[in-house]
Amino acid sequence: MSLKPVPHIEALEEYAVTSQDVWRIEDPHHASRVLKLDWNESPAVLDIVRQRLAEFLAHPGSINWYPDVAALELSKAIADHLGLSHLQVLPFGGSDVALETVARTYLGPGDPVVLVHPGYDNFRLYAEACGARIHRVVPGPDPLAFSMSAFIDAIRALGPARLIYLIQPNNPVGYLASRAELIALLQAFPETAIIVDEAYIEFAEGEPTAAPLITQFDHLFVARSFSKAFGLAGLRLGYVVSHHRNLAHLRKLRNGKNLTMFAQIAGTTLLQNIDLVRQHVARVKAGRRWFTDAYRARGGTILDSQGNFALVRVADPQEVIFRLKMEGIYVRDRSSMRGLEGMLRLTFGPPEIMARVLAAFEAMPDGLWQTAR
């Protein structure tokens, strides 16, 4: 007889990840030609990170000592970056862990949770693992657009929610709510925990973070990541900012040993050299503008996006994915999500990278990917 988990875990639907075939490419030359545009990672690591981590390896405890569980230097660097107190910052081994910890801290069996659809599905998993009830809300008549008033009305129609999860900019669609709209949401539901996931906020025009709003709204949690703009996805580093009383509760479940010194040092180094990160982001945004214009000019359909990614609609998603993969280009299939039929999501890089992606599309037969003609 096999052991069974508790019922709500047994019933969980796994988070669907895309292929990780790239880790099984043994030829270094071939691996160097891969464009991994399926997980919204950075296309490169800044040299200053490699240099600082190489220096740290000479430290006698770099590998065999437990890390600094308080992550104080990193917390202060994040706080300085955001104009907050380090008491309002709590780092984690990835923003996913931060989100999971908020869910474990504030959700219990039967608690209603509101998620935007389409959206990042991993938080759904964390909430359901706590026994929460999920309500997916399409914020308006068009799943590819966002209406805060429609979102608020839909939540009110559902009844009191324990937690609302919003992604800024939305992944996978790419739209962005304004600061005024976020304030309206926070004012409408003062008794509800509200998470604003800002994994991609650095790529939004003006970088309109909600972080300063935690000083006005003590039910707000802002989660941010070092995996995207900062290029540290493999080191796993993220954080949450909120009222210090909320962080005191999160700290009860946080295991500081899971935040390595390599991640802490890399994150601190980049924050101390933030202009280098901003230069990289500017190049990605230039690639976003160039590819969007060029793709449309050739008859392709691509959504406007405030992230380092965009959705493209193609005639045959599986065939397009196969042909791109043959060119060493990996993209994410989103065509099975309700409202995203026929759509793929690709990650942006600088213009020289996006020129190679466009050439791969142009090499395909007419009508396979052009849907705007």
Write a compact overview of the structure shown.
This is Aminotransferase. With 373 residues, the chain is of the alpha/beta class. The chain has 13 helices and 13 strands.
Describe the overall structure:
The chain contains 13 helices and 13 strands. The protein has 2 domains: 7-46 and 274-363, Aspartate Aminotransferase, domain 1 (Alpha-Beta Complex), CATH 3.90.1150; 47-273, Type I PLP-dependent aspartate aminotransferase-like (Major domain) (Aspartate Aminotransferase, domain 2, 3-Layer(aba) Sandwich), CATH 3.40.640. Strands 2-8-7-6-5-3-4 form a 7-stranded mixed β-sheet, with helices on both faces. The chain has a 4-stranded antiparallel β-sheet with strand order 9-10-13-12, with helices on one face. The chain has helices at residues 7-10, 28-32, 47-56, 72-82, 95-106, 122-129, 148-158, 179-188, 244-253, 261-272, 274-297, 317-326, 351-362; strands spanning 35-36, 89-92, 112-116, 133-137, 163-167, 193-197, 220-225, 238-241, 301-302, 309-313, 329-330, 332-333, 343-347. The termini are far apart. The mean pLDDT is 93. The protein is of the alpha/beta class. α3 packs across α10 (261-272) and α11 (274-297) packs parallel to α13. This is Aminotransferase. Belongs to the class-I pyridoxal-phosphate-dependent aminotransferase family.
